[in-house]
Amino acid sequence: MPEIHITYLNGPDIERLALTDAEILAAIEDSLAAQGRGETVIEPRVHLIPEPGRVEGHFNVLRGYIRPLKAAGVKIVGDYVDNYKKGLPSEFGVLNLFDPETGTPTALVDATGITEMRTGAVTAVGAKYLARKDSKVLGHIGARGTAYWNVRLLDHLFDFEEIRVHSRRPESREAFAAKLSADLGKPVTVTEDWRSTVEGADIVVEASRLSEPTPLLRTEWIKPSAFVVPYGTMSAVELSLTDIMDKLVVDDWGQCKGGPFGSLRAHVNAGKLSEATLHAELGQIVAGLKPGRERDAETLLLWHRGLSTSDVALGVALLQKAERMGIGQRLRYA
Fold it and tell me: Where on the tree of life does the source sit, at the highest rank (predicted)?
């Protein structure tokens, strides 16, 4: 057997690579289009809960394949809501990439940053196709790692006149706003409650960190014609939220229709979100197979659970840039 080597990219490597907003968005948009054309395989995620009832945390295992990139991958990411008490991020991840023709491992990549970037990119690409083009006010709930990329990539596309942010802990939301303001070069408003964040906003993103489902985001606060993205692990929305929507869009129905977690889990269980009420998967819209926003007056919702193919796409983009820049380590596998 010939020698086999894998490429290893750690967290500092990924920071040095510094994918631009445009590079991140392009990789994710291309992967969504491939999904819409049927050129991907997405296996519904599975969960490992090591200490149910004792430790607030679990692992997600995501598996996917993208034919145009000739890459398959498996990502394992932890989701531990109380990690901030230990000075740690709530999510750590590792991505393994493989040659889909032979099964040979090709890369091992720190996926913590990938998880944050790709989540924000799906939010932003969704807004590109589903939000009003003249959206000027963003209301964002949550300050975890993915939240930063939600705001940054959305602002890259829309150049908001007003950005409002809120999270449960004052120190968290203040630091979040300060970093965003410095990086975006514009003021970011810290709000004291959910209502003042959401009410009247053109785009609403709910990325809260709840320990159990709690309807903190009221349907009556949603502005007609708004674009709403709820994706907390535990639901923070009312059951009536889907009733006001002209179109319901998900990233992958196979993932959204089952499993114990997700912001619209109760809506699926109640039949409010089903194959009959679902307008499209986002990839179908990106690929041009189904329409996105058709009228300014539409009120639209995107629920994304997180796509394994987004992880694979960003992993490949990082590896390609790393090769060009001579970054990363080559490790002997066999």
Answer: Bacteria
Q: What is the pLDDT of residue 146?
A: 87
Helices (H), strands (E): how many in the chain? Answer: 10, 15
In this structure, are residues 125 and 225 in contact, taking their beta carbons and an 8 Å threshold? Answer: no
Q: 119-306 belongs to which homologous superfamily?
A: NAD(P)-binding Rossmann-like Domain (3.40.50.720)
- Residue 151's identity, in one-letter code, is V
Instruction: Retrieve residue 288's tokens.
Output: 């041009």
H-helix segments, the chain: 11-17, 21-36, 112-130, 145-158, 170-184, 194-198, 253-256, 265-269, 282-286, 308-325
Domain 5-114+309-332 has CATH 1.10.8.60: no
Long-range contacts of 289-292 (CB under 8 A, 24+ apart): 289/36, 289/37, 292/129, 292/130
Q: What's this model's pTM, rounded to 2 decimal places?
A: 0.93
pLDDT attached to residue 286: 98
Residue 278: predicted pLDDT: 97
- How far is Cα 119 from Cα 90, in angstroms, rounded to an integer? 14
Please report the pLDDT score of residue 300 as a whole number: 98
Residues of the chain with pLDDT under 70: none
CA 57 to chain CA mean position, Å = 18
Q: What is the pLDDT of residue 144?
A: 78
* Cα gap 47→217, rounded to integer Å: 26
DSSP string covering 229-259: EE--SS--B-GGGGGG-SEEEES-HHHHTSS
pLDDT computed for residue 313 by the predictor? 98
Domain ranges of the chain: 5-114+309-332, 119-306
